[in-house]
């Protein structure tokens, strides 16, 4: 059976900053026909109470001119094996991403070097190293060079998945080379080369990986165009033969209103009206919104960043609530966007509730309470909130981009899953919102049927997991062929 090592900077429920954490938590378990193990740093801020992590082995890594000791811990959760690398000098932190590129460069370069040392130390020889986002980019180059002259690595192949092309980890070139000790050519003309004497680890991953995937088919096309390519579109066009889009799935064991561990009252497609009425009232009371079960309640649940269209919500807010809607906005993010959200709450009390922190439990309650979920993203590689929302019977109102376009088919009589708009403008967004609101108030039957379609839509991992398996196995066959000289 094909052996896959899934390498990630975050993984729920141990540590999660965004969608990557959810994908890392659910994709490995959905792969049935290959053996997948997950490897990640053992951050000091990681929640390790859900799996019983036990010391497994210790080894040394050459880094920053000395031998650094690394301890590896092993644990299992829901049938998936996790390996955590512990090295206090590098992984002591309050969050995996400090927002300081020097710290992050050092942390993830160390992680890469440790990964390269741990495999021979354990005699563990995966066929596929599945890398995720820029944090793991240097590893693609390390495998590429190492396998040329080290038979232990000769058959290993890399898959690099882009969860978000915007974050590239760009940093000082000399420092990156000092940390990774990759050859000069990698920095001068190869994968790390970037403007103004910087290094770009995302580009490095895309340059050296054997296959590139991203998390929806539409985003796979979009990133090959300058508008969405974040400066890497020409490289992605050059490599288009190895680029593909595989839509993310949802783990319905975790995200389902029938079993959600954060909900005290559960509901199903049959009882959705009562379930939602209960949570709506609770939320309205909690946030001083007028208690009115007929009010159209829209939610925004996302990281508060430029990507997610928070500015569009702000520009449109007055119009959205002018017809009686209530809006609740939650999620954490950067200072500017947190201020925008806070400000909305202050300007429109009793209409807009702002709760700009990320709280898993609250967000689940909000999915349950809301009639609609707003996702006017500028770009969206896949998007998970719209998938969760549909399962909880909240109708998505989304911009037609990336994974939102692939998952939210526009509403039509007896078809479609949500309300969709194209232009990134207040008018276009307001129109889609108004269309949703109108259906909710004026044709409750059609609205309820739409909610039923959303709740029954299948966005589980099954089909996508089979596609990853096919990709892994194709690469293994290719590697075997290369070994026998293509005979
Ligand atoms: C990132 C993207 C999001 C995607 C997630 C998981 O957070 O912004 O669209 O769903 O990664 O792949």
Verbal overview:
The strands form three sheets. Strands 3-4-5-2-1-6-7-10-11 form a nine-stranded mixed beta sheet, with helices on both faces. The chain has a six-stranded parallel beta sheet with strand order 14-13-12-15-16-17, sandwiched between helices. It has a two-stranded antiparallel sheet with strand order 8-9. It is α/β, with parallel strands linked by helices. The longest helix is centred in the first third of the chain and has 22 residues, at 101-122. The chain has helices at residues 19-30, 88-91, 101-122, 137-149, 173-180, 184-188, 201-208, 217-222, 233-238, 272-286, 310-322, 335-347, 360-369, 385-391, 402-407, 426-442, 444-456, 462-483; strands at residues 3-7, 35-41, 54-63, 66-77, 80-86, 128-132, 157-162, 171-172, 198-199, 211-214, 243-245, 297-301, 326-330, 352-355, 372-375, 395-399, 419-421. Strand 16, helix 15 and strand 17 form a beta-alpha-beta unit. The structure holds alpha-D-glucopyranose (GLC). Residues 18-20, 23, 163-164, 215, 248, 380-384, 403 line the site of alpha-D-glucopyranose.
Tell me the strand percentage band.
Answer: 15-25%
The overall average pLDDT, rounded, is 96
Bound molecules: alpha-D-glucopyranose
Q: How does the helix and strand content classify structurally? A: alpha/beta
Low-confidence stretches: none
> What is the gyration radius calculated from CA atoms?
23 Å
Helix percent reads 40-55%
Sheet with most strands: strand arrangement: 3-4-5-2-1-6-7-10-11
Total E-strand runs: 17
Main sheet attributes: strand count, strand direction, barrel closure = 9 strands, mixed
> What is the count of DSSP helices, taking H or I runs of 4+ residues?
18
Shape category: elongated
Seen as an oligomer or otherwise, the chain set is: single chain
The first-to-last residue Cα distance is: 22 Å
């Amino acid at each position: 059976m094909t052996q896959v090592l899934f390498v990630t900077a975050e993984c729920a429920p141990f540590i999660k900053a965004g969608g990557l954490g959810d994908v890392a938590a659910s994709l490995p378990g959905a792969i049935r026909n290959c053996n997948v193990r997950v490897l990640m740093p053992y951050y000091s801020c990681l929640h390790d109470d859900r799996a019983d992590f036990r010391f497994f082995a210790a080894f040394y890594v050459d880094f920053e001119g000395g031998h650094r000791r690394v301890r590896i811990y092993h644990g299992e959760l829901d049938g998936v094996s996790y390996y955590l690398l512990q090295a206090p000098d590098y992984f002591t932190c309050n969050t995996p991403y400090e927002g300081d590129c020097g710290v992050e460069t050092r942390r993830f370069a160390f992680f890469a070097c440790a990964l390269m040392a741990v495999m021979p130390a354990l005699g563990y020889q995966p066929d596929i190293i599945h890398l995720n986002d820029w944090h793991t980019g240097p590893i693609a180059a390390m495998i590429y060079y190492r396998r040329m002259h080290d038979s232990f690595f000769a058959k290993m192949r890399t898959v690099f998945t882009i969860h978000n092309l915007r974050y590239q980890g760009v940093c000082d070139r000399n420092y990156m080379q000092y940390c990774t000790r990759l050859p000069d050519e990698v920095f001068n003309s190869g994968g790390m080369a970037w403007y103004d004497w910087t290094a770009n680890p995302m580009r490095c991953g895309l340059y050296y990986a054997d296959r590139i995937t991203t998390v929806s088919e539409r985003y796979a096309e979009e990133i090959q165009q300058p508008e969405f390519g974040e400066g890497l579109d020409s490289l992605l066009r050059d490599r288009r033969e190895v680029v593909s889009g595989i839509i993310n799935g949802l783990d319905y064991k975790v995200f389902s209103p029938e079993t959600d561990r954060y909900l005290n009252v559960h509901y199903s497609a049959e009882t959705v009206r009562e379930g939602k009425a209960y949570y709506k009232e609770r939320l309205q009371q909690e946030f001083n919104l007028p208690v009115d079960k007929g009010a159209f309640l829209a939610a925004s649940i996302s990281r508060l960043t430029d990507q997610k269209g928070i500015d569009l919500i702000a520009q449109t807010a007055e119009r959205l609530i002018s017809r009686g809607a209530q809006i609740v906005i939650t999620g954490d993010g950067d200072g500017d966007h947190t201020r925008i959200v806070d400000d909305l709450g202050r300007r429109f009390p009793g209409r807009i509730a702002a709760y700009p922190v990320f709280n898993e439990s609250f967000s689940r309650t909000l999915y349950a309470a809301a009639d609609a979920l707003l996702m006017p993203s500028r770009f969206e590689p896949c998007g998970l909130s719209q998938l969760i929302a549909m399962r909880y019977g909240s109708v998505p109102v989304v911009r037609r981009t990336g994974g939102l376009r692939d998952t939210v088919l526009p509403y039509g009589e007896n078809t479609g899953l949500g309300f969709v708009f194209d232009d990134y403008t207040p008018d276009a967004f307001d129109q889609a919102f108004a269309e949703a609101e109108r259906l909710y108030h004026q044709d409750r039957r059609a609205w309820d049927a739409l909610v039923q379609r959303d709740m029954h839509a299948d966005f589980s991992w099954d089909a996508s997991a089979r596609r990853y398996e096919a990709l892994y196995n194709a690469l293994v066959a290719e590697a075997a062929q290369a070994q026998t000289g293509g005979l």
